[in-house]
Design a protein that fits this description.
binds magnesium ion, 20 strands, about 550 residues, 6-stranded mixed sheet, ATP binding, 9-stranded mixed sheet, ATP hydrolysis activity, about 35% helix, unfolded protein binding
């Protein structure tokens, strides 16, 4: 036989290993969950491969996961008859950070200036978590491909691993973990059973522990709503989204027309994009009669719904639909359309029935809904009803909808006005608001950078124009309060304007004129460009620098 070949872990893997081993999880249990979830993924992939490939090694092996414990030897073994790995795949998958999870994790640590409470628990770092408890890990694996071979991957997690050929293997992967002395209790059957019951009861394939099946649950999303408990919903979320937190909310529905669909969609407990984890990948999986077609189909839902987790199952999909053909499948698009509509309707309902919950959702995920208003023409109108802002009529920190604004509009008021700025204080101490206050006109405060773009794209709400309050040529009507003091004679006024225009120069101002807008301030700069608010201009300038 050939001698084992020694490989170094990629530098990033070493970093992850270091964090995992030294500081990451107080909860060591999760390594079982990670490995069982990998085994389940490998079985899903095999089941999918079986739909399109004829030549599969060990084709008649059952699709199941087998765990065995040996408390004398202090070992635990996890075996699946899944897709297995070739030699190259071993190096790629278990020697580098090929998958997005751990990579995002590292980036976030760097951006946040180190590991903090927020980051811990947001992520499962997958396979590498086994080194929290292992003295040594052996991965025996054999690919489904007929012409493949078996390999053994070995490591103690300290910086190197070895790969060697290994004869006589069945298809799939078997991971043998020799536990560190202080974690030997993971080799006790009762301990592992307890963990499996908590984390792995939703696995679609039989999970056997020392020969006895431990999971018996049926697919939650296919069940009747009334038969699913709140706890079951929460547990399924953790399982499906590989999450460690609790969902904020969920929507479970089924329909027969226009398409047969069962969907269970979750709003997660937190927004990783706000925590600096980079762009979220779509997280609603697509199934056909329980069989996973794609865990994160990018074509199913519009981009701005990428924060959602869950499952969509449609019996109308062709089983052997490939990921490529999904891209132009009108069926998949229609499915996504149904889900998006339902979801928006669901949120509208939450906003009516549970204001507190809606506000929580808004504050965490509102930015995605805004993105939807700005980018998704199909859903813009319905989505705009969900928008919330502070305004000159709200207390600091409190929010209003556009509908509530419209309901408060004065009969003669022509438009919905907004001002963009970095903070409420900045807007209220600037000169722009003055004219509106003097006329008791409400102004929406746009405090997030995206708000400006949202307003520019929305343009109208319930047939009222949405107008930036810093535009020139706004006809605001008469002020209820007049400016005090004496008016300048016309010649002096003209001379002053001319002098200002000359002094400021053509590059700065297009025109200087006297107006009725202001009450207390002597002058303000207005925006002649209808397409761009002053705030946007400042942002563009900042970007250009
Ligand atoms: P993730 O599951 O998020 O991709 P992991 O660290 O858990 O990340 O696993 C890394 C990769 O190793 C997986 O994407 C998969 O390609 C491979 N892998 C892990 N366990 C198995 C297994 N039991 N069978 C086949 N491939 C596996
Ligand atoms: Mg994994």
């Amino acid at each position: 036989t050939q001698a084992p070949e020694t490989h170094e872990f990629q530098a990033e893997v070493k970093q992850v290993l270091d964090i995992v081993v030294h500081s990451l999880y107080t909860d060591k249990d999760i390594f079982v969950r990670e490995l069982v979830s990998n085994a389940s993924d490998a079985l899903e992939k095999l089941r999918h491969t079986q739909l399109t490939e004829k030549d599969i090694f060990d084709d008649n092996l059952p699709l199941e996961i087998n765990l065995t414990t040996d408390d004398k030897a202090g070992t635990i073994t996890i075996q699946d008859f899944g897709i297995g790995m070739t030699r190259d795949e071993l190096v790629e998958n278990l020697g580098t950070i090929a998958h997005s999870g751990s990579k995002a994790f590292l980036t976030a640590i760097k951006e946040n200036g180190g590991l903090n409470e927020n980051l811990i628990g947001q992520f499962g770092v997958g396979f590498y978590s086994v080194f929290m408890v292992a003295k040594e890990v052996k991965v025996f694996t054999r690919t489904w491909k007929k012409d493949g071979e078996g390999f053994l991957w070995t490591s103690d997690g300290s910086g190197k691993y070895t790969i060697e050929p290994s004869e006589g293997q069945r298809r799939g992967t078997k991971i043998v973990i020799t536990l560190l002395d202080e974690y030997k209790d993971f080799a006790q059957e009762s301990r592992v059973k307890d963990i499996l019951e908590r984390y792995s009861s939703f696995i679609e394939f039989p999970v056997n522990l020392n020969g006895t099946k431990v999971n018996t649950t049926q697919a939650v999303w296919l069940k009747n709503k009334n038969d699913v408990s709140e706890d079951e919903y929460k547990e399924f979320y953790k399982f499906q989204a590989k999450a460690f937190d609790e969902p904020m909310d969920w929507m479970h529905f089924s329909a027969d027309a226009p398409l047969a669909v069962n969907a269970l969609i979750y709003i997660p407990g937190s927004n990783p994009e706000l925590l600096g984890f980079g762009r979220t990948e779509p997280g609603v999986a697509l199934h056909c009669r329980k069989i996973l077609i794609d865990p994160e189909p990018p074509e199913l839902l519009p981009d701005w719904l990428r924060f959602l987790k869950g499952v969509v199952d449609s019996a109308d999909l062709p089983l052997n639909i490939s990921r490529e053909s999904m891209q132009d499948s009108s069926l998949v698009k229609r499915l996504g359309e149904v889900i998006s509509k339902r979801f928006i309707k669901h949120l509208a309902e939450v906003s009516r029935k549970d204001a507190e919950k809606f506000e929580k959702i808004w504050r965490t995920f509102g930015v995605f809904l805004k993105e939807g208003v700005a980018t998704d023409f199909t859903h813009r109108e319905k989505l705009s009803e969900l928008l919330r802002f502070e305004s000159s009529e709200t207390e600091p920190g409190k929010l209003t909808s556009l509908q509530a604004y419209v309901d408060r509009m004065k009969p003669e008021q022509k438009a919905i006005y907004f001002l963009a700025g970095p903070s409420r204080k900045a807007i209220e101490s600037g000169p722009y608001l003055e004219a509106f206050k003097a006329r008791s006109l409400e102004v929406i405060y746009c405090l997030e950078p995206i708000d400006d773009f949202v307003m520019q794209h929305l343009r109208q709400f319930k047939e009222k124009d949405i107008v930036s309050a810093d535009q020139d040529e706004l006809d605001l009507g008469d002020a209820t309060k007049e400016a005090e003091g004496e008016e300048l004679p016309k010649e002096q006024l003209d001379a002053l304007c001319a002098w200002l225009k000359e002094t400021l120069g053509e590059n700065r101002v297009k025109e200087v004129s006297a107006g009725k807008r202001l009450v207390d301030s002597p002058a303000l700069a207005l925006n002649a460009d209808k397409m761009m608010t002053s705030h946007m201009r400042r942002m563009m300038k900042a970007i250009a620098q």
